[in-house]
Design goal:
Blueprint: E1 16-20, E2 23-28, H1 39-54, E3 60-65, E4 69-71, H2 76-84, H3 96-104, E5 110-113, E6 117-119, H4 122-127, E7 131-135, E8 139-141, H5 144-147, H6 153-163, H7 165-174, E9 178-179, H8 180-185, E10 191-193, H9 195-211, H10 214-229, H11 234-245, H12 248-259
Helix pairs in contact: 1-3, 6-7, 10-11
Length: 268
């Protein structure tokens, strides 16, 4: 069975982490609530990303959801309670922007498998991933402009650096949904497929990432993110460049090319 196949239970839980071989999958698991993100989910996601960071054997992470929608975004009832004073502001526990930032900085390549439409803050969780595969017929919506919300800085930066200023302004300021075709056009999705082809498309991309040179991918991913944010750490960049050029993986990659075979990278 596919590693991203849905679990047999319909019981709502905090996100579920599954590790199988060199692949990790995090599944949002509140299908009856359209996988809205609640405060306990943020704490669970934060811990799961730490677990993944500490597992040197992992090579790719897939983020997906249970049911017909990827995620409805952050729980507006909680936001309302805190804004009105009925509930105290969260002093402890993970914050949404911190989880999104940690996902962006995940050491290994990440794929967001958008099993359906995506709304609100969860649009940024998807943007924080390196790749996004969606299903034909889905849509996305950033409703901040019609809710009176001022979005957090790093999320807006991701919108601008990944989608461009014009697309970011249209999504934030009009608060209108866009369809799958437009999601592809502006680069929100890398690929959109029919639902019956969705699992195969995700598995294909994850397999490619899993089998490429892990050391090279990890250092280049970090460098590309820093370039996009215009905060390149030259010392870190140089160390990564040197590590890859002196790695066993480079020797293996060249040997495999000469011998016309698939490489077997060790990550060293």
């Amino acid at each position: 069975m596919s590693v991203i196949a849905e679990p047999a239970t319909d019981v709502a839980t905090t996100p579920v982490l599954t590790i199988r071989g060199r692949r990790a999958v995090i599944r949002l698991n509140r299908p009856a609530k359209l996988n809205r993100i609640e405060p306990p989910d943020l704490d669970a996601l934060s811990e799961q990303l730490k677990t993944i960071a500490q597992n040197e054997g992992l090579r790719v992470l897939i983020l997906t959801g249970t049911g017909r929608v990827f995620s409805a975004g952050y729980h507006l009832g909680d936001l309302d309670d805190r804004q009105s004073g009925r509930a105290p502001a969260r002093e402890d526990g993970a914050k949404f922007e911190d989880v999104a930032d940690a996902l962006e900085d995940c050491r290994i390549p990440t794929v967001c498998a958008l099993n359906g439409s995506v709304y609100g803050g969860s649009t940024d969780l998807a943007l924080a991933c390196d790749f996004r595969i969606g299903t034909i017929g889905s849509e996305m919506l950033m409703p901040a402009g019609k809710l009176g919300v001022h979005y957090y800085l790093t999320g807006m930066q991701r919108y601008v650096t990944r989608l461009g200023l014009a697309a970011a302004k249209r999504l934030f300021l009009t608060a209108r949904p866009i369809d799958c075709e437009e999601m592809l056009r502006i680069g929100y999705l890398d690929r959109a497929v029919e639902k019956e082809s969705f699992t195969d498309a995700v598995e294909e991309l994850a397999g490619t990432l899993e089998n490429n040179a892990p050391l090279s991918l990890q250092h280049m991913k970090r460098a590309l993110n820093q370039i996009a944010r215009r905060n390149v750490n030259l010392e870190m960049f140089t160390a990564g460049y040197k590590a890859c050029n002196e790695s066993e993986d480079l020797s293996e990659g060249i040997a495999a090319w000469k011998e016309r075979r698939l490489p077997n990278f060790s990550g060293c």
